[in-house]
Specification:
mainly beta, globular, 65% strand, 36 strands
C-alpha cells in the first residue's frame, strides 16, 4: 500500500517489485541488514519471507549504495525481525485461513535465563492453487480435465528458525539460523485428443540463512556494529510427462526442462559511529565485504565466484544549530568488474516546524553472476552471458519538506517530496552483433522522476492518511522516434485505523489506486505501438479483537474489496512485438480469519 511501490505477479516466479519506477533488480532487500539472495529475473520473491517474524519494515527511497553497495540503486527495504523478550517463558502460535485455499500455521517458544534468551519457530504455509471460476465459498466440483491446471500455482512452504540473544551492558549479541523449503506445482492441462496425458513442472526452493550480529556502545557517544552472515539458496526445476490413467511420471528429455541452480554468499559488515548532539562533527566508518558463488549446469565452467570489498564513510556536520550536512563516500574493489566510486550528500534545514531536505546520491548495480556467465543454449533458447559488462550507475536527486503541528488534540503531518533518477549503462538482454544469439549488454539509459504528497492526521485513537503521487518513466524510443519522452502514472493511497481501547477492538481500511502504466514498443511490422497496463483499485478491510488480557487476538476481514483479478494490458513481448491480454493482479475478493495466541510467564521473583 506504500507510495511509489508497484507489485507485479508471476504465478511461478512469485512477486516482483518496482520502486520510484525502477525495476526490482535495483531494489535491495535486507533482513536485519543482511542481503537476501536468490533473485529470479532480477526479483526477490517476497512471498518466501515469513512476515509473522517481522516487527517492522523500513523503506528508504533513492540510492543507498554508499552504505549498502550494489542493487541499492532504487532504494532499500529492510525487514527488522522480532527480538525475543526477557520473559521466563513465552509461547506464540498463529493460524491464518483464507477462503481461496490458503492455510498457514506457525508456532514459537522462547525462554530466558539471566542475560540469555533462546527461541525456536516452526511453520507451514499451504495454498492449493486458484483459477478464475473457483467458488469463493464451498467446494468446487473435482473434474480432472478442468481443475488440475491452476492460474495461480499450488504452493507449500515449510520454515523454521532458531535464535539466540545475549544481552551485554549497553549492547547485545544475536545469532539466528533460518531454514526454508518450498514446492510449487505447475500441473498442465490434459493433452488432446483424449486427455490421458499432461506435462507437469515442479519447482523446489531451499534457503538457509545464518547471521551473527554484534552491537555495543563503546563510550557515551560511540557505537560499534558488526555482522557476519552466510546465506545459501538452491532452486531446482523438474519437468515430467505424466500418464493421468496410471499416474506414472517420466522426466522429459529436453535439456531446458531440468535445471538446478545454487548460490551462496558470505557477508562481513562492520561500522563505528559517533552520535553526540553537543559537537559539530559526527562520523561513521565502515567496511562491507561480500563473496558470492554460483553453481549450475548453465553457468560457465559450472562454477563462478565474485568478491566485492568496500570501505565507506560519512560525516555529519552541523555548521549551524538547525543545519545538518552529511556527505558520504564508498570505495570498493570487485574481483570481476571495475567498481565505481560512489559519493552522496544530504542536507537538512529546520525552520520552526518545517524540515527541508535535499540530497544527491550516486548509485550502482553490479552485473550479476548470471548476466556475466549465464549460458543457456538449446532448441528453444540461445542466451549467453557477457563477462565484459560494466556496472549500472545512476544519479539521483531528492527534495522534500515535511511539516508537523499539534492543533488542539489533532497531530497533523504533511510531507511533500520529489525525485529524479538517471541511470547509465543499463544492462539489457539484446541480440548480439552476429545475430546468432542474445547476450547482456550495457546499451540502455533510463530515467524516472516524480512528485508525491502525503497527509496524516492523528486524533486520540484515530489515524487517517491520504496521499498521491505522479511519476514519469522514460521512453527510450523517443531517442529515435517522435513520441513523448516520458509516460506518466498517478497513484492515490488512503488508510484509516481506529482503536476502541475499552473493548480492545481495532479497525483498519487500506485503499490504493494504481494508475494506468503507459509506454511504447515496436510491433512485428517495425511500427511504434503504445503499450499499457490498465489502472485498478484495491482495498483491504480488517477488524480485530483481543481477549484474555491480550493473550488471544482474533482478526477477520476481506482483501481486494473491488474484486480485481486481471487487468487489460498490451506489453512488449519480445525485441519486435507486443502481446495483448491480461496481467494478473490478484485472485478476486477474498475473506480471511487469523487467530494469534501469546502466553508469557514472568521470572520468579
Amino acid at each position: 500500500n506504500s507510495m511509489n511501490i508497484r507489485l507485479t505477479q508471476d504465478n511461478v516466479l512469485g512477486s516482483g517489485i518496482s520502486l520510484q519506477g525502477i525495476s526490482g533488480q535495483n531494489v535491495k532487500i535486507l533482513i536485519d541488514g543482511v542481503p537476501v539472495i536468490g533473485r529470479l529475473n532480477g526479483n526477490i520473491d517476497l512471498s518466501q519471507i515469513n512476515l509473522n517474524d517481522v516487527e517492522r519494515i523500513e523503506i528508504i527511497e533513492g540510492p543507498m549504495s554508499v552504505s549498502y553497495g550494489t542493487n541499492a540503486l532504487a532504494g532499500v527495504i529492510n525487514l527488522i525481525t522480532k527480538t525475543n523478550g526477557t520473559k521466563k517463558l513465552s509461547i506464540t502460535a498463529n493460524s491464518f485461513n483464507e477462503n481461496i485455499g490458503q492455510y498457514n500455521i506457525d508456532a514459537g517458544v522462547s525462554t530466558s535465563i539471566k542475560n540469555s534468551t533462546i527461541g525456536f519457530l516452526i511453520g507451514r504455509n499451504y495454498f492449493d492453487g486458484w483459477v478464475d471460476g473457483d467458488k469463493v465459498l464451498g467446494e468446487n466440483p473435482r473434474i480432472a480435465d478442468s481443475t488440475r491446471f491452476k492460474s495461480w500455482k499450488p504452493k507449500i512452504q515449510y520454515f523454521g528458525k532458531a535464535n539466540y540473544h545475549y544481552r551485554l551492558k549497553q549492547g547485545e549479541v544475536k545469532y539466528s539460523l533460518g531454514i526454508f523449503n518450498e514446492k510449487i506445482s505447475n500441473r498442465g492441462l490434459p493433452r488432446a485428443p483424449y486427455g490421458e496425458t499432461a506435462f507437469d513442472d515442479y519447482y523446489f526452493t531451499k534457503r538457509i540463512d545464518n547471521s551473527l550480529i554484534f552491537n555495543k556502545k563503546l563510550k557515551k557517544d560511540k557505537r560499534i556494529q558488526a555482522t557476519i552472515a552466510y546465506n545459501y539458496y538452491q532452486r531446482i526445476k523438474n519437468a515430467f510427462y505424466k500418464d493421468l490413467t496410471t499416474l506414472e511420471e517420466l522426466q522429459t528429455e529436453n535439456s531446458g526442462d531440468q535445471d538446478t541452480s545454487k548460490f551462496n554468499q558470505w557477508t562481513v559488515r562492520s561500522s563505528v559511529a559517533t552520535s553526540n548532539d553537543s559537537v559539530k562533527v559526527n562520523y561513521e566508518l565502515g567496511i562491507d565485504f561480500n563473496v558470492e558463488e554460483a553453481y549450475g549446469r548453465r553457468i560457465e565452467n559450472k562454477n563462478q565466484q565474485m568478491g566485492n570489498y568496500a570501505f565507506y564513510m560519512s560525516l555529519e556536520y552541523k555548521p549551524l544549530k538547525n543545519t545538518i550536512i552529511r556527505p558520504g563516500l564508498r570505495y570498493g574493489y570487485n574481483t570481476i568488474y571495475n567498481a565505481p566510486l560512489t559519493p552522496s550528500i544530504n542536507i537538512k534545514q529546520t525552520i520552526k516546524r518545517i524540515n527541508l531536505r535535499a540530497s544527491y546520491a550516486r548509485g550502482f548495480r553490479a552485473p550479476s553472476l548470471k548476466e556475466l556467465y549465464f549460458d543457456f543454449v538449446d532448441i528453444n533458447h540461445n542466451i549467453v552471458g557477457n563477462s565484459e559488462l560494466k556496472a549500472e550507475q545512476s544519479n539521483n536527486f531528492n527534495l522534500s519538506a515535511n511539516y508537523t503541528k499539534l492543533i488542539k488534540s489533532y497531530l497533523v503531518k504533511i510531507d511533500i517530496s520529489s525525485f529524479y533518477n538517471k541511470i547509465e549503462n543499463l544492462i539489457t538482454l539484446a541480440q548480439s552483433s552476429t545475430g546468432a544469439n542474445y547476450t547482456y549488454t550495457n546499451i540502455g539509459n533510463y530515467q524516472t522522476h516524480g512528485l508525491q504528497l502525503n497527509n496524516n492526521i492523528s486524533y486520540k485513537y484515530l489515524k487517517f492518511g491520504l496521499g498521491g503521487s505522479y511519476s514519469g518513466r522514460y521512453n527510450k524510443l523517443s531517442e529515435s522516434s517522435s513520441i513523448e519522452k516520458f509516460s506518466y502514472t498517478p497513484e492515490i493511497i488512503s488508510n484509516v485505523n481506529y482503536e476502541f481501547p475499552k473493548h480492545e477492538i481495532f479497525f483498519s481500511v487500506f485503499y490504493k489506486y494504481t494508475g494506468k502504466l503507459p509506454g511504447f514498443g515496436v510491433d512485428a511490422n517495425e511500427e511504434i505501438i503504445q503499450t499499457y497496463i490498465d489502472s485498478y483499485n484495491t482495498a483491504d478491510l480488517s477488524i480485530g479483537k483481543k481477549f484474555w488480557k491480550k493473550r488471544i487476538q482474533v482478526v477477520f476481514g476481506s482483501k481486494n474489496l473491488f474484486n480485481v483479478k486481471n487487468v487489460n494490458s498490451l506489453v512488449q513481448g519480445s525485441v519486435h512485438g507486443g502481446s495483448s491480454g491480461a496481467s494478473p493482479v490478484a485472485m478476486g475478493r477474498t475473506y480471511f480469519f487469523k487467530l494469534s495466541l501469546n502466553f508469557e510467564y514472568e521470572k520468579n521473583r
